[in-house]
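Hi support team,

I'm filing this because I wasn't sure whether my run with zinc ion finished correctly. The job status page said complete, but I'd like someone to confirm that the output block is well-formed before I use it downstream. Pasting the exact inputs I used:
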Amino acid sequence: MEVKVKKKQRNLLLKSEVTKDYPWLNTLLLANEKFGVELVPDELKEEFINIVPFIIKQGSEEWKGNEDVLHPIEDMGHARKRCALCGTKNRYIHYIKNRLNGNTLNVGKDCVEEFADIDFLQNGKSRTELYKNARRIRKMSEINKKFNGIDLIIESWARIPARYDVIIPNSIEQPYFECGNLAKKYYDGYLDEKYSESIFKKIDVLLKQYYSFIQKMDDYQTSMINDKFVVTKAMMRWLRDKNFTEIIEKVKDEGKITTSTIQKMYESSFIKKISRDIVVILERLKLEVIKTDFENEYFVIKPEMYNGQIIIRCNFDKVVYFFGGLLFNEKSFANLDMKNLIRISELDDDKSIENLVEVMNDKKFSKIRISLHFDSFELNEVDITNITNGEVSVISLKLFVEQSKRFLLHATESERIKFEEYLLNLDVKKYTKDELRQAREQIGSISSRFGSLKDED
Ligand SMILES: [Zn+2]
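And here is everything the job wrote out:
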């Protein structure tokens, strides 16, 4: 940040008490209406950059907390008086008073507002506080001469790890923070006159550690940035959004994604990095991954069965949860086989569902016939006809698909019979073919009058 003294600040500082501690600054103020570091002699440049912002703040606080400033106390009529800070000609004149040295300045309406802040009227610093703060700034100037920019280092210490693109693990971050707490304690203690200059030796050691920690974090980032399993800022943000506190603690401890955290890690930038590996793993089975849909977060998969007529999709979260361990050549939560894959997948499209129904009818159920009708997908309905008596049960298509997709793989005779019995004995209304046709014709005429009736769930 560039440090500059503006005209108003200069005029105020010339009448402020704090300035007296810095004769070199007073000389510069007298010689220049406004200036930046370029006009400061070389040997004072560092002190100017480190300390002047605090002197400016202290200067303006000396003039605050004074209720008089709220009301103009002089009306010049047709005459005008120049504001002592900005030089604007004003009819109404306010006076501000320095609470340490009693100096007064006449200022205009705009400038006075900077001093009439209601918060400051209530919380204006007491004279004791102002003196104490001035001493602090003097101390700050001393310690900055010894350690250039230390105020900024102390102030930003805790925020440094968050600036990296990768998450700095606890093993580096925690000792770094401890070091920072100690440095702040010594630094503040020195400013508050709790410690003498003898504390500089300890501060010196801590600052050397600071730079070596920074180096460590730089090196860590360089070495990890291309590691697929490194935890990035984006992943950490995602973990926080998901409220995965336990995982956050683990990755901070381990520094990267491991078998113990992979199950809950499906943030999209991470999946992008490992998607090739996942495809290779899934393709150990007889299937082809035909698409990785990052937007909807699933893999689209064509198993080698039924001439590729059944397409399934498996969500990222389920893939990493059940099979993530395989990325580390470790045991996965579920065995990677077609049965488990189908169990955690959904059928991808209507065509695949139609094909599933066909497969189910081919399974030679002896007592039922499964059929879709024109609005099956829209109404989420499938008809189960009891061949023996012609009664039809209408059930949820989604539920039916979910329960019957396992029959895509080999099933035993008893499993089939059991499922057939289950479908026949569902506690739903049974229609005759005619009743059902009439009911659907009615719905058809209603929907042609009022637009289609959609049952979206
Ligand atoms: Zn002004």
